[in-house]
Amino acid sequence: MRGNFGKIVVFGLIAAMSVPFLMRFSGCFKSQQNTTERVETTPAESIKVDIPDFSVDSAYTYTARQVAFGPRVPNTTAHKACRAWLVKKLKSFGAEVEEQVLSEKHHSGKILNGANIIARFNPGNPRRVMLAAHWDTREAADKDENPAKRKTPADGADDGASGVGILLEIARTFKQKPGNLGLDIVLFDLEDNGKDGDGSGDTESTWCLGSQYWAKNKGNYQARFGILLDMVGAKNATFPKEGYSMHYAPEITGKIWSVAQRLGHSRFFVNETGGAITDDHAYVNQVGIPMVDIINLGPGPAGTFGFYHHTHDDNMNVIDRETMHAVLETVLTVVFSESAAIL
Ligand SMILES: [Zn+2]
User: Fold this and answer.
1) Which of 45, 113, 216, 325 has its CA 20 to 30 A from that of 32?
2) How do residues 267-317 score in pLDDT, each as one tens digit?
3) Thinking of the domain 2-339, which architecture would CATH place it in?
4) Where are the beta strands (DSSP E) in 155-251?
């Protein structure tokens, strides 16, 4: 993805949806690390959100497993092998899995072959939530400080694999404890092979080819809200409230950050507004599903990506279990409060 730092690009179709829910969130949260319940007593009412036991080690391992295939660059063997593994894994967790095959034109003119992987839990339930991440890797680490290494791809441990690792763990917990809602996990392909422009021509549309395809072909699919995870595993990550999320989905953005703060994760989910990023959620928002991007950015409108972004430093060394824990616990709590119809 790339940043539109400091500005909000308003799309042709304004679809700022409002998600009705009451900000009455309080209560106790349960996590695997601490089986005793934390109780917040400030508001008079107390709502319990019972989330399934989850394992950060498992999310970490799923991330490392993707990296072990090699960079998941479209049209490569590693890409193909990882796709097959993701499909198999999601099926083993009880999901109904669709591979949405696509061939899209790269900005160089070559054709990129890929597939969005869509895993549906409780397919008959009309009340749905969508969680997404991209699973492809950029073809070249073109921001690496060493010019000789700029033509080869990085591992993409954080940029891609971490979000998918967390979603696989959520899928695994859903098998143990299916929520009372429909859950769609969408792994977008062809997100990260766009062209970095200087802002003069249209290079925005060269990114996020998988989600653009998905949005054009979504039919009558609808979800109450969506959450996109992108670069969610790095040590000391900060997740300010991303610009498009605030524009299209301010209520659910507020809800997620409020939940994170109540869970004690304000070090990661900083209470600041960040820049607007051309990422998969932009295209999902355009077709009427309010979707929030949780993405590692420096705070403030001019905040930049992590030091490792599109460099060879994006490997397992930057991945940290504490960050993954904060994201996993927050997203599970938001999903299960929707499941309990607390939203
Ligand atoms: Zn990227």
Assistant:
1) 45
2) 999 999 999 999 999 999 999 999 999 999 987 777 789 999 999 999 999
3) 3-Layer(aba) Sandwich (3.40)
4) 182-188, 225-230
